[in-house]
Amino acid sequence: MKRIIGVALVAVIAVPLMISGIFASPAPPVEDGLPKGIAFYGVLKDGLMEAEATNRPILFLSAAPQCAGVPGMW
Amino acid sequence: MDRSFLSNEKVIEASRRFVCIRLATYEDDAEAEFLKTIYVGNTGALENTVFVLLSPDGDENLCRPGRSPQFAFRSPEQMALEMGKIADKYDAKTITPSKHRLPEMKNVRLGVNVGACDGIPSIICYSNDDDELNQMKSRLAPLALSDDLAGKFVYASSNKATELSMLKGTKKKSAGFYVVTPDEYGLAGKIQEVLDADSNEDALKKALVEIAENTAKSKKDHNSHVRTGKRSGKSWETEIPVTDPMSLRAMGRRGGRN
Fold this sequence. Notes:
- The structure holds two protein chains of two kinds.
- Chain A has helices at 2-19, 44-54, and strands at 40-41, 58-63, 66-67, 70-71.
- Chain A is of the alpha+beta class.
- In chain A, strand 3 (66-67) and strand 4 form a beta hairpin.
- The relative contact order of chain A is 0.06.
- Chain B has helices spanning 3-6, 9-15, 29-38, 76-88, 108-118, 130-144, 201-213, 222-231, 245-251, and strands spanning 19-24, 50-54, 122-126, 154-158, 167-168, 176-182, 189-196.
């Protein structure tokens, strides 16, 4: 009997709190500001000249700026 | 392109000791020939993506080449660690800031499209006077490579007003640094701001840092973008024919330009 009363009490208290959003997941933070990234040379000749001048190794990649012919997506 | 590796904080930090080159595949004949010397798939054709670490002269592979960093590294953390070891082997030279080259795309068209791909603004340097344009790029280059601004904008330049016709927002196209928000498909861009062509480095840095702080990266769903783009006839014409077998299947036809 005590258990039933306990469960009912929890339900009476918890349900309105859940409805009011207290148990809801916090809203995701608003992502303001551009994140740090990699500065890429988009022209081979420029990148190779920069690497030679600074004697730095090269992180090299190439990707097509279109997917299935649709631009705006790698 | 494997974003999980290239957007990893440790890889980004390690990249500061490298010169980073990201070409646009199928957008330059000579560059395509260079790419083929690094990696081609089973068919012998140039594929959409290529990845490798190279020596400063570009002649020696410093890791296993492939389509993505995953061909060479188990995880972004391992990649960052190996990049650190590689960088330790080279005695990097410091050069006068104005001697750095601007990390820019080949043309305005690509500058706007790649901005759309990355979900970030493009900065277009424009002047019909070549000397002025070179000076503008010299002032912008060290900022573009700085830790504060690296990877936050995509750059391109032009001395031809006609190249700016894809930019909407102002009729008169005078010399300046055009801050552009690419449209969803990168086929046009909206001019948000024009910074004076004679802005000094401090003024440029202040303006660009402020723009970067007040701009959110645009995010798109890959499948939905491609599906909607196809339905609405958004298409990109590559400079040279696409040869990646998977891409050709996705385009639903054999060979030819996009």
